[in-house]
Known about the structure:
single chain, FAD/NAD(P)-binding domain, D-Amino Acid Oxidase, Chain A, domain 2, 2 domains, 8 helices, 25% helix
Amino acid sequence: MATATSGGAVEPSADPVPERAPSSGARSADVLVVGGGLMGLVTAWRTAQRGLRVAVVDPDPGGGAARVAAGMLAAVTELHYGEETLLALNLASAARYPGFVAELERVTGAGLGYRSSGTLAVAFDADDRAHLRELHALQERCGLASTWLTGRECRRLEPMLAPGVRGGVRVDADHQIDPRRLVAALLSACEAAGVVFHRLPARALRTAGGRAVGVELADGRDLSGGQVVLAAGSRSGTLAGVPEAARVPVRPVKGQVVRLRMPPGPAGSGPLLSRTVRAVVRGGPVYLVPRENGELVLGATSEETGWDTTVTAGGVYELLRDAHELVPGVTELPLVEVRAGLRPTSPDNAPLLGPTAVPGLQLATGHHRNGVLLTPVTGEVMAHALTTGELPEQARPFTPARFAAAGTTEPGRTGPGAGHVSKEPRP
């Protein structure tokens, strides 16, 4: 039952890689995408739709962080101080989701578990209520639609909430999707669009004349590409052969998630929860995401523990304890699964999108807690960048050059407080 996910599109290596052109027998593509998770697949699909020959390098496409993520599309309740620039990109992607889902469902014939039932963020005690009030004020200053509710009004919306809930914020525009179904649909859409899959890890980036020209696979074969996209999630900074000028400042942040099963309610009664509920319980954030298939996702811890993906008793205990404080009925539900995954996290918690200082090398990584939310806009941004060489205006604040200019180039750092465990208030 206890499983972990860390991704494997890149074979980590500390060995230097000499610059050389790919072997003459290498197969060629217009675009090579290293990484077959959400970012890699949506980039490949949208780029193939524009007529380019695209190949994806990943031993297990469709795996990675999407297997663990809760799938909250929370542009409003994700807002935190100092992230107003990211808000604009989040909102742009959220607005694209209905059309994006409709197109994917039409192409693949598969449902994606998209739900527009909204989100309720609640506070459990007076201190948490004061903090939530401040966040609500920030939302209003940013022109976002959210409604303050009393504790009684929160329980009227969600009767299974504990009596101690002191207040909350209702956000109808924050939706959800099932990331596992989403990544499976993107995989099918890529195959239908003619994307070629190489099911091996990438060992190293290959360069010639200062330009990225392809990758070396784990079995020693070379693949050539007119452009290379590094979209390997938290492993994006570990690919050998990347020149110092384009080093990727992405580190892993561990998240543990619990999945429960909600049985059908008696005739005339509703489910345990009808919408996503996010909360701060005595200072500790927690979320509960009810799926249309009866699954209830509880999450998520946020741990600076490097590449560790161990599911721990302490992490699971904290999630269940705080979820029980919020919705006492959760402890009566069957336990289905516990997982741990790694969020790809940049120094400012925002994605790295588009061209790097190395010609021919582009990035689509570092999305941290917003990967699922930013999937539609990332596909559009990367397809545009790969076909025109330039980022769209809305994505320019997220160029990889922002870290090179600041001298922040260390990949894979664990940051201050390594080993600290806290619960992440975001998906």
